[in-house]
Amino acid sequence: MTWKTLDDMDLAGKRVLVRVDINVPVENGRVTDATRIERIIPTIKDILAKGGTPILLAHFGRPKGKSDPAFSLRIVQPTLEAALGRSVTFVERPTRAIIDAQPQDAVILLENTRFTPMEEANDPQMAQFLASLGDVFCNDAFSAAHRAHASTEGVAHLLPSFAGRLMAEELAALEKALGKPTRPVTAIVGGAKVSTKLDLLGNLVTKVDHLIIGGGMANTFLAAQGLPVGKSLCEHDLAATALDILDKAKAAGCDVILPRDIVVAREFKAGADHIILAPDACPADGVILDAGPATVNHIASVLRESKTLVWNGPLGAFEIAPFDMATTAAAREAATLTKAGHLISVAGGGDTVAALNAAGVADDFTYVSTAGGAFLEWMEGKELPGVTALMG
Ligand code: AMP
Question: Which residue in 48, 180, 204, 263 has a CA-CA distance of 20 to 30 Å to 9?
């Protein structure tokens, strides 16, 4: 994969359309978490330093293709100004003349791209219109790159295009983890259900050396092998699919690791009484909520022999202590190995980021992607239209 970055571009005097993800959470008209805004600041500053004028394009919430003040990007303008340390010009109805009338060192923010249905329809007229506002296109929104929209994909075909700092960082990390990884490669896939991660498992068994399956989805694999799972979260109807995945893994030489011991409670509740049992010993009224210490020891030894780790999904019901034990212990082991330079660790997906933060190790991983859907589609081996369009 090759893509142009900011370093390859001459931006002096150019109007630079920049697709960003500033879809931040808002309560009572105020931004409650500015992380996404802070992460695009380096790209904006570098464009300015190169003499370009950044024109920010972004979606915000789900206005359903109609103009709606509740979803106006005006709401994020003050937070963006604070993060940049300079004023930002908000333009509700842009034309090339309005854009050209701004000073070269202006930072321009356009209104929500989803105020028209043409955005999500990837309408060529909308892409043409956006392209008419700028001279070059910079995509810095990896998290929106799995969608072929006018502002993520359409416009990239009409202007010289390149990756912003955040996009380039994300692509480089992902390429290192699954594109051309240093082997052995281990994947940890956990979370609630097999049904939401079928494509993910199907792709990984052909790419990784060890596949660790945990969380509620491990129960489906245990049950498929004829083991009792009591009242645990389990998709019994996916037994045949689970066995197919195990067969596919065997054929590809991928070592699948399922729980070697289980943590069983009688209810899904923080602090619930629990016991550690062998995987064939779950009682009829038991609920499996985590993997046990023998599993954790085995995971740690696999990680110690691995050079690359990709991780999506917790190994247990990590939100309720003490059922975060396996997730936290595996996360700490991966973090320690990463800090010591033995492991490249890439993790992503909403709950995974929350689990790594809860374990206090997110900063020690090589890369943690906050792009939920786009990260999963990449792990599934799917082409991301917004990224493909940058390959020109
Ligand atoms: P996902 O969104 O598929 O990554 O699933 C994450 C959710 O799976 C978290 O809310 C966990 O609490 C839940 N989970 C993980 N392991 C279990 C389990 N053994 N039983 C019930 N829920 C679980």
Answer: 180
